[in-house]
Each structure stands twice: as structure tokens, then as C-alpha cells.
Amino acid sequence: MIERLDHFPHNVLAFVCRGLVSRADHDSVLVPAAMKAPESQEEVRLYYETAADFAGFEVGAVWEDFKVGMVRLPRWERIAVVTDIEWIKHPVRLFSFLIPGAVRLFPLPEAAKAREWIAAAS
What we know:
Blueprint: E1 2-4, E2 12-17, E3 20-21, H1 23-35, E4 44-50, E5 56-57, H2 61-72, E6 76-82, H3 86-95, E7 102-106, H4 111-119
Parallel strand pairs: 2-4, 3-5, 4-6, 6-7
Antiparallel strand pairs: 1-2
């Protein structure tokens, strides 16, 4: 499941993935939030965490993730990915050059540091 996190600045979309993430999770949580991102805000930030109990993505969920990222691509100012999972870290490292904003990976024990970085003034 994907859970939207509160207590972030209005221009930060923040999510945590727990258990098995389905396409329905993307359709009901992540996609609507990304599409409703502050229109007045020129750039949007993303905080994306995989919790310790994260079990993976169902088929189709990864594609939904990619589509949301591409739709908002020009507006991503910063992206913080918090995970200890290598198969998530590797593509983030590999494709981060395609994202116009700053992308940083943080291990789970540094989630507080990631939250500070994503919320900090530019």
C-alpha cells in the first residue's frame, strides 16, 4: 500500500510504501496527489520512502510510478528516495540524470535527514 504523509511543506508530495504496492494504490493515492500538486507552485518536490515492511510492487504498479514521474518531470525540483532496497536504488542512480531537479538517495536510517533535505529552502 502507498500512504500519503502529512507534515511536509505544501510543495512536497510525500509517500511511504508498505507491504505489497498495487496499481490500485497508485491510482487511488499517488496519481491523484501528483495531478493535484500545487498548480501555482512552479516546482514540486517528492519524498518517496519504502518502509522496512515493503514487500514489492504488483505488476503494473511500477509502470504507473514511471508515468506519474514523466507527467510531472519538468516540475520536479527535488526528489528524495529513502530505501535500503538495491533494485530500487540502482535504477534511481541510473536514470537520475534524466530528471531536471536534484535526486538524492537516503538509507532508511537517514529518513529524518531526507525529510530535512526535501523540506529545506533552495
